[in-house]
Amino acid sequence: MVVSDNGDGEDWACTLHAMWTSVAMIGVRDELAELVLPPLLAQPGVAGVWGLRHADGGVVIAYRWAGLDLEGERRGVAERIAADKSTEIAADADLRALGVTRVLKAHLEVGGEPSGTFMLLIDDTADAGVLAGRLAQVVDVTREALRRLAAGRLEQQQHIRDALLAEASLQMDAVLDTTQTMNRIPRMAVPAIAEGCLVYVYDGGKPVLRSSVHVDRRRLSAMLADPATVDRLATIALEAASGVPDFDGTVMNPQVLRARGRVIGVLIFLFDREPERIPPVAFLRDIASRAALAIDNSTLYEQRRDEIMTLQRHLLPSRLPSVEGLSIAASYAVGDQHLEVGGDFYDVVVRDDGTVAALIGDVCGRGVDAAALTGMARHTLAALVDERLPASRAMSRLNARLRLDGSWRFVTAGVAMLRPAGENFDVQWLSAGHPAPILLRRDAPPRRGRGGGVPLGILPEPRFGRSRVRLAPGDTLVIFTDGLTESRDPQGRMFEDGALTETLDQLRDAPVETLVNELSRAAAAYGDARADDIAVLAIRVELP
């Protein structure tokens, strides 16, 4: 822009250069007034500089000034001047009394930002042409500063949204339980994304509210207690998938939960904030997409887990026998890492001579082949022991069968033969590479038995480990698979070394049903992720 000059053009050029240099350092809009108003006030003939910031509709939302203050009735004067379309107008009587004869104006527009009006209050000594040019240059500086501020805010908001998306994904994917997942989703969204969040899942074609969170619990409770509001929300959730908007986007925003080509529900965001603070629809859609995938993953996981549990139950005895003088209980916990049927098994056989045979074993690997071998191993051992074969003969026969089939899989197995001896029971333990049992005395610390031997299916002639113990009334024999003892904490320490003895001490007097279940839970909770199944069988000699 070329303008006339009154001799101080060089000084103004330096001032203008300093303003342009400072543009990059402006952090907030309010700092702009300190940057651009004082240099204008320093120009010859300028008595005051006023700046107005306008919201939609022209409403003034901020007043800034240098020189003549912009307080009280002068604000009304400034608003009237701003409403005038002219770029130069004569001063009114009040301003003339202050030595102001004319007012130069320039309007500022920046897309997406509040508009503004600059006013130079000048006297008769001012060169209006020069000042008008310099005012236009200041408007250019201000426009660029606002553009940079807007771009910086957008970039910062995008960084925040990216961080929220990343954290949301971590939070929603951290669990594979459907109920926990649905509870985490709205907690993740409130208050960072919205003031409230509702999770609806379609069940039989109808939306069912599964989870809800709001910054104001009382407001949420009142809302969900109002039948009309509940019906309205359900209608929105039902119609959301049709894509027909029937809501105020500044109050709520429903996003369809769609995963793997299926619509599984709707996420409704509730807002109680300024419109400019409402996240973009694309961001809300992205949140909903990740939430839908997390819900679908947890649902598929639970379905798969149920299938595995059903199959696993068919590989285990439907119930354990009742034996006079003994309390017997077992538990089985399915490993989570691969969600394939495991190879752990147990059984209890009561011979007609009163001998009780407790069997436990672990087939190498997982999957259908391992499951088939598990069923064969359990039934073979149980049938042979029931026919009064010694435990060593029974396991030798199973070893021969494994070798004959040519399977690469091996089987660790243990058999505890319990024979009544008055109030006590004599126990003979035979192990083929299986973890040693634990003897939980009524009045002594837990003690590990002896294992030993070589897993079945490896050698032509099996090798066994043997031991004998006597169970007195109140004593408990605990046999298990290695998934119990080898659960590891984040530092790699095994449950057997870190918490097994303490856990057994705490469960010493608990019923055997409680003992096996809590022992399995403790081992599972000890590890970061349970990779192996856990089978536990406990036999206690009852007190007289």
* Tally of individual helices: 15
Strand order of the largest sheet: 2-1-5-4-3
Structural class, please?
alpha+beta
Q: How large is the radius of gyration?
A: 40 Å
Mean pLDDT: 87
In angstroms, what separates the terminal alpha carbons?
A: 108 Å
Report on this structure.
This protein is an alpha+beta fold and 544 residues long. The chain is built from 15 helices and 19 strands. The strands form 4 sheets. It has a 5-stranded antiparallel β-sheet, sandwiched between helices. A hairpin with a 5-residue loop joins strand 11 and strand 12. Helix 5 runs parallel beside helix 9 and helix 10 runs antiparallel to helix 11.
What's the structural blueprint in terms of helices and strands?
Blueprint: H1 9-22, H2 31-41, E1 46-54, E2 60-67, H3 74-83, E3 88-90, H4 93-96, E4 102-108, E5 115-122, H5 128-173, H6 178-189, E6 196-203, E7 206-214, H7 217-225, H8 227-239, E8 252-259, E9 262-270, H9 281-314, E10 326-333, E11 344-350, E12 356-363, H10 368-386, H11 391-405, E13 411-421, E14 424-432, E15 438-440, E16 447-448, E17 465-471, E18 476-480, H12 482-485, H13 495-498, H14 500-506, H15 512-526, E19 534-541
Antiparallel strand pairs: 1-2, 1-5, 3-4, 4-5, 6-7, 6-9, 8-9, 10-19, 11-12, 12-13, 13-14, 14-17, 15-16, 15-18, 18-19
Q: Notable features of this structure?
A:
5-stranded antiparallel β-sheet, 25% strand, 544 residues, alpha+beta
Short description:
This protein has helices spanning 9-22, 31-41, 74-83, 93-96, 128-173, 178-189, 217-225, 227-239, 281-314, 368-386, 391-405, 482-485, 495-498, 500-506, 512-526; strands at residues 46-54, 60-67, 88-90, 102-108, 115-122, 196-203, 206-214, 252-259, 262-270, 326-333, 344-350, 356-363, 411-421, 424-432, 438-440, 447-448, 465-471, 476-480, 534-541. The chain has 544 residues and is of the alpha+beta class.
